[in-house]
Design goal:
This protein is α+β, with helices and mostly antiparallel strands. It has 2 helices and 4 strands.
Length: about 80
């Protein structure tokens, strides 16, 4: 998992999106093709490969409701 975190961090410069455009609604917005607790934040673009950056809303016991990078986005990192 630490290796995936390093790989994801290395891809920061390949992020095509604008986090400032995300909804200020704590529940997010409904997006076609995504569950209600997921939101598309942008994409990672490397060469000819593009991976959507999906955030998922979780309830953290210490912090309350927070957005995390979704498992499907993290799983796609190694192919980039």
């Amino acid at each position: 998992m630490a290796q995936l975190a390093k790989e994801l961090q290395a891809l920061q410069g390949k992020f095509d999106g604008n986090i400032a455009l995300l909804s200020g609604d704590p529940n997010g917005t409904i997006e076609p093709g995504l569950p209600p607790d997921h939101v598309r934040a942008g994409a990672l673009v490397v060469g000819g490969a593009t991976v959507d950056v999906i955030l998922v809303r979780v309830d953290d016991p210490a912090s309350g409701k927070i957005w995390l990078i979704a498992e499907q986005t993290v799983a796609a990192v190694p192919k980039l």
